[in-house]
Design brief:
The complex is a heterodimer. Chain A is built from five helices and two strands; from the N terminus they run ααβαβαα. By secondary structure, chain A is mainly alpha-helical. Chain A has a single domain, classed as Histone, subunit A, CATH 1.10.20. In chain A, helix 3 packs across helix 4. The longest helix of chain B is centred in the middle third of the chain and has 36 residues. The chains are: A mainly alpha, B mainly alpha. Chains A and B meet through helix 1, helix 2, strand 1, helix 3 and strand 2 of A and helix 1, strand 1, helix 2, strand 2 and helix 3 of B. Strand 2 of chain A pairs parallel with strand 1 of chain B. Chain A: GO terms for molecular function: DNA binding; nucleotidyltransferase activity; protein heterodimerization activity. Chain A: It comes from Pundamilia nyererei. Chain A: This is Chromatin accessibility complex protein 1.
Chain lengths: ~120, ~150
C-alpha cells in the first residue's frame, strides 16, 4: 500500500506539471474513429473527449464508492459499480456492460424476498 | 484502424491512477472493478462520440468540434462536466499557442523525465508506451485538421 502510494505521487510530479490530461489522446482517437460515421475530429474535440473521459472515470468511481457497500471496509467492488449503473440515470447506458453479478444462492434468497414483498409483480 | 480488440481499451495503469486520485486515501479497488471502470470509460467515449457526431451531422459538418462534444455532454446529462471542460480547454489552448516556441525545451525535458521513468517502467509498462506514441500523432492530426478547415 505504501509503495504504490509513493509511486503515484511521483507520477503526478512528472506528468502533472506540464500535462493537462493523463489518458493517451491517440488511444481515445482510435476509439472515436472506430465509430463508423465519424470522419474527422478536430484537436479541441479530441482533447475535450479525453478530458471528459477522465472526469467520467472519477465521477463513476466516486459515486459508486459513496453509494456502495464498501465504505466501512474501504473497498470499491464490482457490485458497487453495477448498482450505480442500475440506479443512477446518467450511468444507465452502462447497464449492458455492467450487469449485476450475484451468487445463485443470493439470487434465490432475493427472489423469495421479492415474491413475499410484491407477490403479483413477479 | 483498430486491428485488435485490445486497441479499444484504455491503459490500465492510467485508469487505475485516475480512480485512486478520485477516491479517498487508502480505498481498495478490486481488480474486477478496475476492469469494469476501464470498459465503462471506453463505452463512454463511444457514446459521447456518437452524440457529438449527431450534432455535427445536424449542422452539416464533417469534422467534430469542441461545441459538438460539449453539446453531447449536455445531452448525456453530464452538465457537471461542462465547467471543468471549458476551463481545461482554455488552459490547453494557451498551452498550444506557446508550444512551438517551447518545443525544444519540452523535448529536452521529456528526455530527462523518460530516464527517470525508466525505474518504474516495469510497473507501468503499458502506460509509458502510450505516452511515447502520443505526441507526434496528435500533431499530425492538428495539421490535417487545419487544412480541412481552411
Amino acid at each position: 500500500m505504501k509503495m504504490s502510494h509513493n509511486s503515484s505521487a511521483k507520477d503526478d510530479q512528472a506528468s502533472g506539471s506540464k500535462k493537462p490530461i493523463s489518458l493517451p489522446i491517440s488511444r481515445v482517437r482510435l476509439i472515436m474513429k472506430s465509430s463508423p460515421d465519424v470522419s474527422s475530429i478536430n484537436q479541441d474535440a479530441l482533447f475535450l473527449t479525453t478530458k471528459a473521459t477522465e472526469l467520467f472515470v472519477q465521477h463513476l468511481a466516486l459515486s459508486s464508492f459513496n453509494n456502495g457497500s464498501g465504505k466501512e471496509t474501504n473497498t470499491l467492488s464490482y457490485s458497487d459499480l453495477a448498482n450505480t449503473a442500475q440506479e443512477a440515470d446518467t450511468f444507465h447506458f452502462l447497464t449492458d456492460i455492467l450487469p449485476k453479478k450475484i451468487l445463485a444462492q443470493d439470487y434465490l434468497n432475493s427472489l423469495e424476498q421479492m415474491q413475499e414483498e410484491e407477490g403479483a409483480d413477479y | 484502424m483498430a486491428e485488435r480488440p485490445e486497441d479499444l481499451n484504455l491503459p490500465n495503469a492510467v485508469i487505475t491512477r485516475i480512480i485512486k486520485e478520485a477516491l479517498p486515501d487508502g480505498v481498495n479497488v478490486s481488480k474486477e472493478a478496475r476492469r469494469a471502470i476501464s470498459q465503462a470509460a471506453s463505452v463512454f467515449v463511444l457514446y459521447a462520440t456518437s452524440c457529438a457526431n449527431n450534432f455535427a451531422m445536424k449542422a452539416k459538418r464533417k469534422t467534430l468540434n469542441a461545441g459538438d462534444v460539449l453539446a453531447a455532454m449536455e445531452e448525456m446529462e453530464f452538465e457537471r462536466f461542462l465547467e471543468p471542460l471549458r476551463e481545461a480547454l482554455e488552459v490547453y489552448k494557451q498551452g498550444q499557442k506557446g508550444k512551438k516556441v517551447s518545443e525544444q525545451k519540452r523535448k529536452d525535458k521529456e528526455k530527462k523525465v523518460d530516464t527517470e521513468n525508466n525505474k518504474s517502467r516495469d510497473e507501468e509498462g503499458e502506460d509509458d508506451d502510450e505516452r511515447m506514441e502520443e505526441e507526434p500523432e496528435v500533431e499530425n492530426e492538428a495539421e490535417e485538421e487545419e487544412e480541412v478547415e481552411n
